[in-house]
């Protein structure tokens, strides 16, 4: 189990662009990832020290009524999987720079 859990940190991600979409909410996926990317890029590296700080960083942007539209694509972008630890935990584990790389790749898949 440990090997599988850690794989998202070390193995190249392989997933289809369609897996980034939350249910039938395809219209908002790219736009939401772009907003999240902008926040990550502007954040301090220290904000990635733990998942709680990352959650606070994104709290004002992530619509509490539509969390799935924000967090589902972010989770898949970061892990390459539909089932994984939460996106805040993943970002804390992989750090700011790798989070940026992975979210950019997801946005490119949607272009």
- What integer is the average pLDDT? 86
Overall number of strands = 0
Low-pLDDT residue intervals, each spanning 5 or more residues: none
Q: Level of helix content?
A: 55-70%
Major sheet, described briefly? none
Number of H/I helices: 5
Descriptive overview:
With 111 residues, the chain is mainly alpha-helical. The protein has five helices and no strands. The protein has helices at residues 2-10, 26-42, 51-59, 67-79, 87-110. α3 (51-59) crosses α5. The longest helix is centred in the C-terminal third of the chain and has 24 residues, at 87-110.
Summarize the structure.
The protein has 111 residues and is mostly helical.
Task: Please name the defining characteristics of this protein.
111 residues; mainly alpha; 0% strand; globular; 5 helices
What is the fold's blueprint, element by element?
Elements: H1 2-10, H2 26-42, H3 51-59, H4 67-79, H5 87-110
Helix pairs in contact: 2-4, 2-5, 3-5, 4-5
